[in-house]
Structures are given as structure tokens and as C-alpha cells.
Write a structure and sequence with these properties.
Radius of gyration: 11 Å
Strand order of the largest sheet: 4-3-2-1-5
Number of helices: 1
Helix content: 10-25%
Largest sheet: 5 strands, antiparallel
Order of helices and strands: HEEEEE
Length: 70
């Protein structure tokens, strides 16, 4: 089991996105593009909520990038 390292910049950035309820765009290795707000994160996954309040759990390994939606 890997420990959740809250000192890492990427973890802190995602925590800021959660706190600010920032709308994001996530690109996956499958080339899918998802949009929504991150509800929670753990060492392995991120939970994204879309505009219909559907929760999707995404493995971190599947994410190519995430960025604020413009």
C-alpha cells in the first residue's frame, strides 16, 4: 500500500482544485476527454463529478493530464 504524500506539489494542486470546486478537463490514455470537478483523491484514484452529478472513479495511471477548463 502506498502512502498518500500530501507534500507533493501534484497532490497539493489537486487538493486546491477540490477546495475551489474548479471545473477541470482530464485527458485519459484512451484519448477520452472528461470534464467535471474532482470530488476526492486517494493514492490510486481521483473521483470526478460531471454536470449531471455522476461520479467517475479514475485510476491516476490512466490520466495523461488535467487542467482547469477554459
Amino acid at each position: 500500500m502506498s502512502e498518500f504524500e500530501t507534500g507533493l506539489p501534484s497532490i497539493r494542486q489537486v487538493q486546491t482544485y477540490i477546495k475551489d470546486k474548479q471545473e477541470l478537463e482530464l485527458k485519459l490514455v484512451t484519448n477520452d476527454l472528461l470534464t467535471g470537478k474532482i470530488f476526492w483523491q486517494d493514492p490510486h484514484c481521483i473521483c470526478l463529478i460531471d454536470e449531471e452529478n455522476t461520479q467517475t472513479t479514475i485510476w491516476r495511471q490512466a490520466i495523461v493530464y488535467l487542467k482547469p477548463k477554459s
